[in-house]
Amino acid sequence: MVDEHRVERPSPILRYFEDALGPLLPEPDFHRLTSYDAAVAATSAHGDLHRCLRCAEWAVGLAAARRQVVGAGTDRWSGRLGEVLRQVRDAGQAIEFALLARLPGVSATNVEMVAWIDDVVALAAEVARATGWEAVPWEDLLVELIGYEPPEDG
Predict the structure, then answer these.
(1) 27-36 contacts, C-beta under 8 A, 24 or more apart
(2) For residue 140, what is the enclosing H or E element?
(3) At a CB cut-off of 8 Å and minimum separation 6, what does 4 contact?
(4) Phi, psi dihedral angles at 115 (to 5 degrees)
(5) One digit per residue, pLDDT tens: the chain, 154 residues?
(6) Helix (H, G, I), strand (E, B) or coil at 152
(7) First vs last Cα of the chain: how many Å apart?
(8) How many other CB atoms are found less than 10 A from the CB of residue 65?
C-alpha cells in the first residue's frame, strides 16, 4: 500500500539544483557545495514551490546587479526569469492547492520547476564566465533554500 501522505525526501529541487550546479563549479566551490549534502538530505519536497520562486527572484536580482559588468546579454535572462516569476505567482496558489489536495498526477517536480532551476543555473554560469564564480552568491542561495524546510509536525 502506498502512503498518500509520504513526502519525498530529500527535496527533489535541492537535489536537482546541486546536481546541475556542481559540474560547473571550480573544485574548491564544488567541495563547498558537497559540504551541504547532509543538510540537503534532511529536506523534503514541502518547500519546493517556494524554493523555485526564490531561485527565480535570486536570478532576476543577479542579472540586474551584474548587467553593468556582464552587459546587455543578461537582459534576456531578466526577461525570461521575470516571466517565470509572473507565471509562478499567477499559478502558485493553484499549484499549492493541487499539491495539498493531493490531486492525481500533480507533483512539485512536473510543474516546470526543473526548467526554472535550469534557467537559474545557466544564468549563474553566464555571470561566472564573465566575472568569476566569486561574483555569484550561489552558496547564500543554497543556504536560504535549505532553510525553506517547514518544521516537523509533532
Answers:
(1) 29/133, 29/138, 29/139, 32/139, 33/138, 33/139, 33/142, 36/142, 36/143, 36/146
(2) helix 138-146
(3) 102
(4) -65, -35
(5) 444 457 789 999 999 999 999 999 999 999 999 999 999 999 998 888 889 888 888 988 888 777 655 555 555 555 666 666 666 666 555 555 555 545 444 454 455 778 788 888 988 998 898 889 999 999 999 999 999 987 765 4
(6) coil
(7) 24
(8) 14
Measured distance CA(134)–CA(113) in Å, rounded: 26
**How far, in Å, CA of 122 to CA of 138, rounded?**
12
**Nearest in space to 151 (alpha carbons), one of 44, 37, 33, 9:** 44
Q: Which three cell numbers stand for residue 13?
A: 529541487
Q: In the numeric block, which cell numbers belong to residue 26? A: 571550480
Residue carrying C-alpha cell 519546493: 48
The letter for the amino acid at 29 is: D
